[in-house]
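During the second year of the project, the team shifted from modelling isolated chains to modelling whole assemblies. The rationale, set out in the original proposal, was that interfaces cannot be judged from single-chain predictions alone. As a representative example for this report, we include one of the complexes processed in the last quarter. Its constituent sequences, exactly as entered into the pipeline, are reproduced here:
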Amino acid sequence: MTARRLCPSILSADFARLAESVRPVEPYCEMLHLDVMDGHFVPNLTIGPPVVRSLSAVSRLPLDCHLMIEDPDRYLRAFAEAGARYLCVHQEACTHLHRTIQAIRAEGMLPGVAVNPATPIPSLDPVLPDLHFVLVMSVNPGFGGQSFIPYSLEKVRDLRRRISERGLETAVQVDGGVCEETLPDLIRAGADWFVAGSAVFGAPDPAQAARRLQEMIHA
Ligand code: DX5
Ligand code: ZN
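Output from the structure prediction step:
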């Protein structure tokens, strides 16, 4: 079983003070989740490689880039050069998903594929052995602070079962509405990596919020 991880999403942090925002939570998490949005695949715009590069210079944490963009192949090298360690593309955004996964590895990053709430888990069966992780979206991507979609739990259970049956090491990451209330069910369902945006950076004391989530994750 993969070691569990807390992955704070900077989407809910103060973008004018990213370094200062991230530093206090660093002791309580294993990686940093960066949400990249293009205004096409999702109805929102966020950050790109320059911000990834700047954060990699000030944080010791591995950077996990969640690309919510169309035609991600065009930008893989730019994210690798900017310092991304984990690179996740959306199943729905890739016409030739297998090729994209190979390209992520060729750039020296660890590949993940995200599935939207309406995308079935079995659609990943052919590529599962090639993936370092799968991201189950438990909200529709595009914004922080949305409510957890309950049937995501069944998708996490289904994915965990498929990974175990095939003897794979693929990690199960979950993103959207992860907080103290939803965490226990997600842990029971078999998730490994927990992305939390508003539950960390939207809290009055982000370090305390991250510590609390980390205690639950590693209990
Ligand atoms: C949403 C992003 C998430 C977002 C999660 O499209 O992929 O990473 O930051 O935010 P919360 O944890 O507030 O649901
Ligand atoms: Zn995300």
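Residues 9, 11-12, 33, 35, 66, 139, 141-142, 144-146, 175-178, 195-199 surround D-xylitol-5-phosphate (ligand 1) (CB under 6 Å). Residues 88 and 112 are 4 Å apart (CA to CA).
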